[in-house]
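TASK: fixed-backbone design
INPUT:
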């Protein structure tokens, strides 16, 4: 009789979002079977001197996304291998329909992912307009295990939705138990500022940053939060880059609103000065929306992570080659927007966050894995080291280091926005559903197509709690004694 082979991770310190402790982890098949002392199994992974953590979840990627007249060059195959080599075991990618056919777009994304992905994945669906067919299709999307819908308040004339469309979609999300996500920048003002700088002859990547100031983001975050509150639904703000955006989220949370904020590892560590770089390619390679900001804004984001007003660190991995970036050589508005980071998120955040004392190791696990698993209703299947959970595990060696180089990365992009940055906190092993898919020093890629779609049920606990509260405090008609009513004319 055949028996599932087991693996024991021995001698490490388990770091969960709530505590750290020394124990072995026994894995049988795809899941964690036991945690304890002196466990035995068919094979042993040595975790001495290392931290055993839930694999990273990156809830914001755009692999092979058609965008701005081209397609993001990072494929599902290269992107998920890059992710695993950096300790990220699951990505959540954005499906962008080019019509009202949301299910057709979901099928197209699923076809690409299922053939190529070596890490597990899930999807968010983008709502880029509003109509009866979209209203109907949202229910079918939720039935397919996609419980989050993204809205762009920017990219006027392309993906942008306006307030009434967003309000309608948010109300639909409330009814379906789905979470609305928002790219918050005031798209009308961005479009006007872009035109202004083009008219003034400022056509280089520096104008990308000039046309998207922090206030434009802060205004949109406030508006998105107000619309979500009116619709009675939680809301998740993607790529929060600055203090005005963080301030809006902080204030809403203090009022008891269910608002989540996601800074990117790039916005935490990279400075707006990159757009002034004399080398056009260098500056254009860093063009993304919102743009990188100055230190004051970076400090605000770090403070938000330690205070709990911001919950998740993502990458928005949307990687274009230098040749693609040059589509905007004579006009910054044509530079494809997006940067990479999937491979580097954990080591960069460990080095700049934990090693500096801005984050505890437990907070690191919370913001790279556990919090988003809870928000997206994946917990504890993902985001947890506990019996019954998927064995998605990173054994992180805090002493192992490297200098980030495009020339040695797994990503197929020809540059890296973190080029030259020295990091520590590298994976010694990465496991995905019980399989060792990456091992330090070994470079072979796991089998493309081994990654699985992970469905996410609707009605996460915070969604239920908010619906209950909103029903309780909903405006009601006053019942009046008909006998005492004035006579109408
Ligand atoms: O510049 C960015 N962020 N590109 C990816 C698409 C998006 O806005 O998230
Ligand atoms: Zn409208
Ligand atoms: Zn965005
Ligand atoms: Zn994005």
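OUTPUT:
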């Amino acid at each position: 009789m055949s028996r599932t082979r087991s693996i024991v991770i021995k001698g490490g310190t388990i770091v969960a979002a709530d505590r750290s402790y020394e124990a072995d982890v026994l894995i049988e098949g795809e899941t964690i079977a036991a945690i304890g002392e002196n466990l035995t199994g068919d094979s042993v992974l040595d975790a001495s001197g290392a931290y055993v953590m839930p694999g990273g979840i990156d809830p914001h990627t755009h692999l092979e996304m058609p965008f701005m007249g081209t397609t993001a060059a990072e494929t599902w195959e290269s992107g998920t291998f890059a992710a695993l080599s950096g300790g990220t075991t699951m990505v959540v990618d954005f499906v962008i329909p080019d019509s009202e056919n949301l299910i057709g777009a979901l099928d197209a994304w699923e076809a690409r992912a299922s053939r190529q992905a070596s890490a597990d994945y899930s999807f968010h669906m983008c709502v880029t307009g509003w109509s009866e067919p979209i209203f109907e299709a949202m229910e079918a999307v939720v039935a397919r295990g996609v419980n989050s819908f993204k809205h762009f308040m920017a990219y006027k004339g392309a993906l942008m939705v306006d307030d009434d469309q967003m309000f309608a979609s948010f109300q639909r999300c409330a009814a379906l138990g789905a979470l609305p996500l928002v790219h918050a920048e005031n798209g009308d003002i961005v479009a006007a500022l872009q035109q202004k700088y083009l008219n003034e002859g400022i056509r280089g990547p520096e104008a990308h940053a000039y046309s998207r100031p922090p206030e434009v983001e802060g205004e949109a975050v406030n508006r998105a939060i107000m619309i979500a509150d009116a619709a009675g639904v939680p809301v998740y703000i993607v790529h929060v880059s600055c203090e005005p955006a963080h301030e809006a989220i902080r204030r809403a949370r203090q009022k008891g609103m269910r608002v989540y904020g996601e800074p990117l590892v790039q916005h935490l560590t990279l400075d707006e000065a990159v757009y002034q770089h004399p080398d056009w390619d260098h500056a254009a390679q860093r063009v993304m929306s919102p743009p990188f900001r100055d230190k004051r804004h970076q400090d605000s984001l770090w403070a938000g992570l330690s205070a709990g007003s911001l919950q998740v660190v993502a990458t928005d991995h949307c990687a274009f080659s230098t040749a693609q970036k040059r589509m905007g050589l004579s006009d910054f508005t044509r530079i494809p927007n997006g940067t990479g980071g999937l491979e580097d998120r954990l080591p960069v955040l460990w080095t700049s966050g934990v090693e500096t004392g801005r984050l505890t190791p437990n907070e690191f696990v919370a913001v790279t894995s556990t919090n988003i698993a809870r928000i997206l209703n994946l917990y504890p299947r993902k985001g947890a080291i506990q019996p019954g959970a998927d064995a998605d595990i990173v054994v992180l060696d805090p002493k192992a280091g490297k200098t980030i180089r495009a020339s040695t990365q797994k990503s197929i992009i020809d540059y890296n926005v973190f080029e030259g940055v020295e990091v520590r906190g590298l994976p010694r092993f990465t496991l995905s559903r019980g399989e060792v898919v990456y091992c330090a020093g070994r470079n072979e890629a796991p089998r493309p197509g081994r990654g699985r779609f992970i469905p996410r049920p609707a009605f996460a606990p915070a969604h239920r709690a908010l619906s209950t509260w909103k029903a309780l405090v909903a405006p009601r008609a006053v019942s009046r004694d008909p006998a005492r009513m004035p006579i109408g004319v």
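COMMENT: The pocket of zinc ion (ligand 4) is lined by residues 60, 62, 316, 318 (CB under 6 Å).
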